[in-house]
């Protein structure tokens, strides 16, 4: 009980104001919050993580749809910039290296054995590992580190932030593959646009 209470105190809650922050992505500076757009802030694990790779490629495939909905994606890893460029540089959204986990601590994002020990995580872990292994064997990606920066027990988190910096929704994962899907993010964005008023969010189309 004490652990759950202290953990809840560290976490960001809906209605909290965050930023403004300037974050250094591997492609340049990004603003948090994004002006006139929603920001979906993703906290992932280490660069090259097979489970993260599996998840983020589902977002990459639907990147145009996400952009059209007025959402800016910012994805954080607890790896340094060189590792991030090596393993994830081809993804079409802002990627931020946070090897010291400063933003992870600021947003209350955790690590724990349940990341890999929860049976619900095992099917996507197996799928992710097999996918990454095939890509490595075909020369399409480098082998991920066996001792990644920040460890291998990170838990995911998702935060949806409005243009004013207000947290509109958030999710803290209970295991390594417990995060919002693309459809969930789009549904949350549609609800947010309705609540905030369409004129406050720049939506394409």
What would your notes on this structure say?
It is a single chain. The model is unreliable at 1-8 (pLDDT under 50). The protein has helices spanning 2-10, 50-61, 63-68, 81-88, 102-106, 114-117, 122-137, 182-196; strands spanning 21-25, 28-32, 38-43, 71-77, 94-97, 157-161, 167-172. The protein is of the alpha/beta class and 205 residues long. The protein is globular, with a radius of gyration of 17 Å. Helix 2 packs across helix 7. 37% of the residues lie in helices and 19% in strands. The strands form two sheets. Strands 5-4-3-6-7 form a five-stranded mixed sheet. Helix 4 (81-88) links the parallel strand 4 and strand 5 (94-97). It has eight helices and seven strands.
Set out the fold topology:
Layout: H1 2-10, E1 21-25, E2 28-32, E3 38-43, H2 50-61, H3 63-68, E4 71-77, H4 81-88, E5 94-97, H5 102-106, H6 114-117, H7 122-137, E6 157-161, E7 167-172, H8 182-196
Helix pairs in contact: 2-7
List key phrases describing it.
205 residues; alpha/beta; two-stranded antiparallel ribbon; 8 helices; 7 strands; 19% strand
- Helices and strands, in order, run as HEEEHHEHEHHHEEH
**Strand content of the residues, in percent?**
15-25%
Within the largest sheet, what's the order of strands? 5-4-3-6-7
Could you give the distance between the termini? 48 Å
Large-scale geometry: globular
Report the strand count: 7
Number of helices: 8
User: Structural class per helix/strand content?
Assistant: alpha/beta
* Mean pLDDT across all amino acids: 87
Instruction: Describe the largest sheet.
Output: 5 strands, mixed
Radius of gyration: 17 Å
Please mark out the parts with pLDDT under 50 across 5 or more consecutive residues, or reply none: 1-8
Q: Portion of residues in helices?
A: 25-40%
